[in-house]
Amino acid sequence: MSRPQLNIKFDGEGEKELLETVKTRAQDERISLKEFVLDALKNRLIVHLATQSTQSTQPKPAVTKLEVDELKRRIVDIQISLMNEVRKDRKQIAALAEAIALIESRLDVLDPPNIVTVEDSQARQSRQRETWENDAVEFLDAISWGDDNG
Questions:
Q1: Shortest CA distance to 133 belongs to which of 102, 88, 87?
Q2: What is the DSSP string of 13-39?
Q3: pLDDT tens-digit profile of 47-101?
Q4: 72 to each of 34, 47, 68, 121, 147, how far by Cα in Å?
Q5: How many CB atoms lie within 10 A of CB 121?
Q6: Which of 36, 43, 4, 10 is nearest to 22 (CA)?
């Protein structure tokens, strides 16, 4: 009757040092080199089997074309909703900018910084209103998203 045999040649770089380390560890644990190598092989197999079993028990996601199409449709709906919100915000920002310009012009009338002629105050109010309108338009242009129609 033949006995199973495993012959390993240690002739590569670092393999001789590995063999010496294995021999030293086996002596430290007071077991034979054969027992140490067999234990190392068993431990490696156990780790490999444990890894395989956890991977095989985890369900693999199966995504159907119908699910992908539904997700795409939902993404498009969300994008459309977001664009509508941006358009509403742009209109509100423009209205707020106009209201702020009006308030500032009224503040100048109520409490003029210096006693100035009426013509200078009116010219300043007109200039401020134009500045606010121009700033609002520049701001809205800077944040414009989507098509140019909306």
A1: 102
A2: TTHHHHHHHHHHHHHHTT--HHHHHHH
A3: 877 777 666 666 667 788 888 888 899 999 899 888 988 888 888 998 999 988 8
A4: 60, 41, 6, 57, 20
A5: 17
A6: 36
